[in-house]
Structures are given as C-alpha cells and as structure tokens.
C-alpha cells in the first residue's frame, strides 16, 4: 500500500489536469477514494439509506427530513489567526459584558418564543381536533353513522393532505420528528435546510395539521426541532438584508455560540411540549448535546424556566374560556397524584415483568420502524405527489381503524358512582357514547375517538379499574403499536413520544388489570409504568424520561418504580439493537460520531485512513492557483506550507479555511511580487465580522468573485488569516485516540504530521468522513472479513 506521503503535492498550474481526476470530500482536503457501498457494515440496520442507492462522488450527502441534500461539518474550533488575536486584544470590558448579556438575553428570547409556539400548537390542535370530533359525535347521536364516518375520514384526509403538501413542496426537511437532525447538528453535522426559517414554519403548521388529522403521532418531537430552529434564527448574528446589523450581534457569527443556543432551543422544545422544564434540560444533556459544560447548564435551565412561566401564564388565561375548546389543561398534563402509591413484593415482580416486556416490544418497534422507513424512502424518492399519496393512504387507514374498531367493543353500563358525566357529552372524557344506547358507553371509543393526549389521560386515570375491557385494551394496543410504526416516515412532522406512551400505557394497564386482585397499585399507575418501560425500550433514555414522566404526572412517589422499570427495559432492549433515534441517524447517512471509538480502530493508526492526494498552499500563493483549487475541489480546509525562500526549510504554517480565502480574495490585497506583507497591511479594510460565518448559506461564494486575468497572475499573502495553531496528531497515533480527540474538541479538521524528519511537514488531514466505518472498510476491505469472524465467535 502506497504511503500517504507519496500523495503529497502543492497546487500549481501544471497539476490542473491531475486535479480533475480527484474525488473531492466536502469537509477537508483529504480526498476520499471510491467506497464499496455494499460493504459499509455488517448489518442492514447500520447501512445508510442514501448510500444504498446513490453513488456519492462529489460531496457527502444525507437524508434530512424527507429530502436528500449535501452536508458539511461545523467549525467549533477557534481559528487563532492574526485577525482573531487583533480582535481579542481590542475588546474592551464593556464589550465583554455586552457579549455575556446578549447570551442570556437570547436565551430569554428562545424561551419566550418557544413557549408561545408550544402554547399555540396545543391550542390549535385542541380546537381543530375538537371541532372535528364534536361534528362527528353530533352525527353519531343522530344515528347517521355513514355520514359521520365520511365526515370524520374526510376531515382527517384534508388535514393530512395539507400537512403533506406544505412539507413536500415547501420544506421536506420538516418531515419526521427532527430529533435525529438536531442531534446530528449538535454533534457537528450541518445541512442548509435543517434549521431554515421555512423548515420552522412548516414544522409548526405541519405538526398542527398532522396531529389534528388523527394520526398516531405526537407534536413533542417536532417541538424539539422547532425550538432548535427558533434558536438558530435568533443566533444568526445579524442580517444586512433586514438591517439587523447591531454591532453586538457579530459576536454570534460562529458555530460555537450557535451550538449553545440550539442546545437551549432543543431543551426549550421539550419543556414546551411536555411542560417539563427540568426534563428538558436533562433531555438536552442526555440525548441531544454532544458537548456540555456548567455554563451551558445554567443557560439551558434558565431557558426552560422561562418556557414554564410563559406556559403557566397563558394556561391560566385560558381557564376563563377565552381559548375555545382549549382551557382545562395545566402544567401537569396527566395528574395521577390523587392516589397514594404503596407497593409490595408482588408489585416489584410485576414491574420486572413490565420492564422485560418494554425491552422486547421496544426493540421490535425499532426494528419494524427501520424496515418501514426503508420502504417509504423508495416511495418518497419518486417525488412530492407520491409523498402526499402515501400520507393520504395512511390517513384513510387510521380513520378506518379509529372509527371501525370501536364497533367491535361491547357497550358497558355507566358506573353509578362515576365522578364524570357518563356517557360523555362533548369533545373529551372517559365515557364515549359512540353507538351505545343512553346510559352506556363504548370503552374502545373512549380511547380511539379522542385526541392522543386525552387517550393517555384516560389510561392514566385512577378509580377506573373496570372501565376498559381486556379485549378493548388488546385491540387498542395492537392498533396503536402498528399504526405508530407505519405512520412514522410519512411526509409530515411527526413525533414518536406520544405513540410510544400510548402503546406502553395500554399494555401497562393490561398487566395492572390482570393483577388487580393481588396488587396494591391501581391500573392507572401500571399504565404509567408501562409507558416508562416502552419509552426506555425504544428511546433508550433513562434520566430524562424518568423526570419528564414525573413532571407530567406529578407523582414523585413513583420515582423508584419508574427508575427500576426504565433500567430494566433499556438493558433488555440494548441487547437487540440501538435506540430509535440513533438508528435513524445512521439510516439517514448522517456521519454522527459516538463518544467512544469502535474496537477495530485500536488496531489502526491515523496514517492508515488518510488518503491523498493532498492539496496545500504556500503562505504567499499565486491567485490563479487558489482560484483553480477552489473551483475544482469542494475542500473547506487547506494546509499552508512555507518553503524557501519564505522559510529556512519546509514547515507547516497552519490551516486556512475556504471561507476565509474567499473573503481575502474578494478584498484583492494582491501584489505583483511574491513577498510577505505586514499583517496590518493585509488586514486593512477588513473587520472580524467579515470572516465570521454567515447564516443560512448566505456567505461569499466563488462565483461572486470578479478577478481579472491580470490579477490571476498576482500573489496574495495568506499568513494573516491562517490558523497557526491547528490541532495535529502524529501519523502513528491510534485511530481510536484520534477519533476521541476529534469528537471531544469538536473539530472539523485534524492535521496528521509525519513521525520521521525529511518528509513533507504534513501527511494529510483527517475529517469526520475519515472516521466513518464505511470509509474505513472501503479503504481496508480486510477489516470486513475480520469483523465478521469476530461477530461469529460472539
């Protein structure tokens, strides 16, 4: 195998022909070889969909929402060049205070806006779905059953088609929950459409329409994405187009501060969806964020506290009846604190069984979701009309189940000592009349013919031991389980939390009903524990889910049991497959970097995966060479190497970014001779914000430059914009250590330097792509055979 150093060369005019044969890699100047796409990993679950049918030769691509688009890595590293040092020295104390104040002020705005959006979502869903259910119920009371079905199914179909249309045509990235995309972004993966304003709007209105359409999905996952979009919009660092160029906003024109704001936004989304501020912080810490520190913890907690205050105030306002059909809720969504929880040894055995059931059902759920998503991706690739058609089909199937299955249930006589009115008159309640005569109710209709939130509230309710027949619970569980699987993946904003809670609460209540005579816990508490077990089996989150459930139900006495059932279900499910969001991240082709390295990486060194040729510049380079390199490659980082007469011997000056080169070329600080200029002269006319990252892809592009033929023969001094202290590793460093370093520091480029003297000062550049299993196995096919042998012996 040829050593990487043999691929090293400088860019000059004579190498243009050679450069056209290069496969470029978006994230750096290490160039990727052709990969064996069929051998990316051992199991189908690990194989990204986008690489299964798409040969990627120009850039890295992934599925964002329901759309295939190019992706890049984010720059979390501080670029320590002359411009940065000059800006840092010139900052005054009042500017530092201004920067700190702005961070807290933006956190406040994120909390306010996310809280308002969360309240608006809830109010809109309750009113739209409530109107639909009232209209259908009125027709049912008049025994006009066929017209009631067509009214119900027609409303659902119109709402579903509208949600799919705006998603398919305006913002395909808004499809799905958005949590995998936010998780990948906070890990360092960027795509233009992930957090765009159009994605935000479609996420809000698409989620309202989708949930109102009666789909077995929730608005909680989309709220996480919504909060992240709001944070990204506020953290753009100003906009010249809208004259928002306040000097203080320039401090946020970098990926590090935006990452912190988006972390706050994702936590605020959970807080707004579940009205669980502490759970939101823990969700961001446990599931979303890849980097965390104490200062971020305080700001995230402050953001979620603002969300809680906003929701509390608005919900109190709605208690007066000024919000239509929405107004009976509170910060505690499913209050089960009325009953005193006491449990004995038989209860603990039942909880162990619940944990095992949750682990098995959860891993099976993830497996089936993966299969369905792979099937839907083939349909979605055919275009927007097919996405809408698929959504309408699933809507009709859901409507048939919701309206048709309650006919299988027997009518039950209303309990004499019922606290609530029976049968229920109006939109929500425990006792739906459906087709039953006066004085009777349909238990299955009480679950199906409600909003998902009301169905969960009915399952969690206390004092209703005999409300639901076992047959009704079995039918409802089977329907919800499989409807949740086939619904996730259609082109509407959809979350998995609510379907999982519904299914888990149902089988939890089944267990509680069976054990009713030998247990001290009522079926409603078993429903809560069942929901926890299924969440642990699918999401594989423990701490955050535990706190979210306790904040949802206001039942602190159940803490030990919820913790126990979560730990058991997660342990069981982990032995079968990954968590649902981790699985979707892999399937979408997002190059997510785990906190730990793969075991086989310990047998490799950094030099093994660095592929060439490597393009480097001199500290004072010909303008034409830079333009040709930028035009013919997609690299975002180039090593700068000085050679005599600029230095006594070849030495690595540092790393220069593509965006900084474009700004420098646009400033036209050119010279006719190849001479090094003082930094003050090169940087004259530039401000630090010129080199900051523009938001939403509005930065300077190569096509925007106007360089004449005469200027192409001139020279430009790059020393002032070169990051003179890039992170470097020696070529013999273990690839596992390099991967841990790369992720822990949030890098985009990691320079690999030679171990022995007398060679070029840089061997290559490691990027995120170079650590991906499919890339490594493509370079070293023998690893696939060795991994198979290891898996067969385990």
From TrEMBL:
User: What range(s) does the CBS domain occupy?
Assistant: 722-786
Q: Where are the transmembrane segments?
A: 101-124, 145-171, 191-217, 261-284, 296-315, 348-368, 388-408, 473-491, 556-573
User: Per its UniProt record, what Pfam families does this chain match?
Assistant: CBS, Voltage_CLC
Tell me where in or outside the cell this protein is found. Answer: Membrane
Q: Which GO terms describe its cellular component?
A: chloride channel complex; plant-type vacuole membrane
Superkingdom of the source? Eukaryota
Q: Which family does it belong to?
A: Belongs to the chloride channel (TC 2.A.49) family.
Task: Please report the name of this protein according to its UniProt entry.
Answer: Chloride channel protein
The record lists the lineage as: Eukaryota, Viridiplantae, Streptophyta, Embryophyta, Tracheophyta
């Amino acid at each position: 195998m040829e050593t990487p150093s043999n691929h090293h060369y400088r860019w000059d005019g004579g190498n243009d022909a050679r450069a056209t044969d290069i496969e470029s890699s978006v994230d750096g100047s290490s160039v990727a070889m052709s990969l064996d796409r069929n051998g990316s990993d051992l199991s189908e679950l690990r194989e990204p969909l986008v690489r299964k049918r798409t040969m990627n030769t120009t850039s890295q691509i992934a599925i964002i929402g329901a759309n295939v688009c190019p992706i890049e890595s984010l720059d979390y590293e501080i670029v320590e060049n002359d411009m940065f040092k000059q800006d840092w020295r010139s900052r005054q104390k009042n500017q530092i205070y201004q920067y700190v104040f702005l961070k807290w002020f933006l956190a406040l705005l994120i909390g306010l806006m996310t809280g308002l959006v969360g309240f608006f979502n809830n109010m809109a869903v309750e009113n739209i779905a409530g109107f639909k259910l009232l209209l259908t119920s009125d027709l049912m009371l008049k025994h006009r059953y066929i017209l009631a079905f067509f009214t119900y199914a027609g409303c659902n179909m119109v709402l579903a088609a509208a949600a799919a249309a705006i998603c398919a045509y305006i913002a395909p990235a808004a499809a799905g929950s958005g949590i995998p995309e936010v998780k990948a972004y906070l890990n360092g993966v960027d795509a233009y459409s992930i957090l765009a304003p159009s994605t935000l709007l479609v996420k809000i209105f698409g989620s309202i329409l989708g949930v109102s359409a009666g789909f077995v999905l929730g608005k909680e996952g989309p709220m996480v994405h919504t909060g992240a979009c709001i944070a990204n919009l506020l953290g753009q660092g100003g906009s010249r187009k809208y004259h928002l160029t306040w000097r203080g906003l320039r401090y946020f024109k970098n990926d590090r501060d935006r990452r912190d704001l988006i972390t706050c936004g994702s936590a605020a989304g959970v807080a707004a969806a579940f009205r669980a501020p502490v759970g939101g912080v823990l969700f961001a810490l446990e599931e979303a964020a890849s980097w965390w520190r104490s200062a971020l913890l305080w700001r995230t907690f402050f953001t979620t506290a603002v969300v809680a205050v906003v929701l509390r105030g608005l919900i109190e306002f709605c208690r007066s009846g000024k919000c239509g059909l929405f107004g009976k809720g509170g910060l505690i969504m499913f209050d089960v604190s009325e009953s005193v929880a006491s449990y004995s040894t038989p209860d603990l055995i039942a909880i162990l069984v619940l944990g095992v059931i949750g682990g098995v059902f959860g891993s099976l759920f993830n497996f089936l979701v993966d299969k369905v998503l792979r099937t839907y991706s083939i349909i979605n690739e055919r275009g927007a009309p097919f996405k809408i058609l698929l959504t309408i089909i699933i809507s009709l199937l859901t409507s048939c189940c919701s309206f048709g299955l309650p006919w299988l249930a027997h009518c039950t006589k209303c309990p004499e000592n019922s606290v609530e009115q029976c049968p229920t008159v109006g939109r929500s309640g425990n006792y739906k009349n459906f087709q039953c005569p006066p004085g009777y109710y349909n238990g299955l209709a009480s679950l199906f013919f409600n909003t998902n939130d009301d169905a969960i509230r009915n399952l969690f309710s206390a004092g209703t031991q005999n409300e639901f027949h076992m047959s009704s619970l079995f039918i409802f569980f089977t329907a919800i389980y499989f409807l949740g699987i086939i619904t996730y993946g259609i082109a509407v904003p959809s979350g998995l939390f609510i379907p999982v809670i519904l299914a888990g609460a149902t089988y939890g209540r089944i267990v509680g009903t069976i054990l009713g005579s030998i247990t001290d816990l009522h079926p409603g508490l078993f429903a809560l524990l069942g929901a926890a077990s299924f969440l642990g089996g699918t999401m594989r989150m423990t701490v955050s889910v535990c706190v979210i459930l306790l904040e949802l139900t206001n039942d602190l006495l159940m803490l030990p049991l919820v913790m126990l059932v979560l730990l058991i279900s997660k342990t069981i499910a982990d032995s079968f497959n990954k968590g649902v969001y981790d699985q979707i991240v892999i399937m979408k082709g997002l190059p997510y970097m785990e906190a730990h390295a793969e075991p086989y990486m310990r047998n490799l060194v950094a030099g093994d995966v660095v592929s060439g040729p490597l393009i480097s510049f001199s500290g004072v380079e010909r303008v034409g060479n830079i333009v040709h390199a930028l035009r013919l490659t997609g690299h975002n980082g180039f090593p700068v190497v000085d050679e005599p007469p600029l230095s006594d011997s070849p030495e690595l000056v540092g790393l220069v970014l593509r965006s900084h080169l474009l700004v420098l070329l646009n400033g036209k600080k050119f010279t006719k001779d190849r001479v090094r200029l003082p930094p003050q002269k090169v940087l004259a006319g530039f401000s630090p914000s010129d080199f900051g990252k523009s938001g939403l892809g509005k930065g300077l592009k190569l096509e925007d430059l106007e360089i004449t033929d005469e200027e192409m023969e001139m020279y430009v001094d790059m020393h002032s914009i070169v990051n003179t202290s890039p992170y470097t590793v020696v070529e013999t460093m273990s690839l596992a250590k390099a991967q841990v370093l790369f992720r822990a520091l949030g890098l985009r480029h990691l320079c690999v330097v030679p171990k022995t003297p007398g060679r070029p000062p840089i061997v290559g550049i490691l990027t995120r792509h170079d650590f991906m299993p499919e890339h490594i196995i493509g370079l070293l096919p023998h690893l696939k055979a060795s991994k198979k042998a290891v898996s067969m012996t385990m």
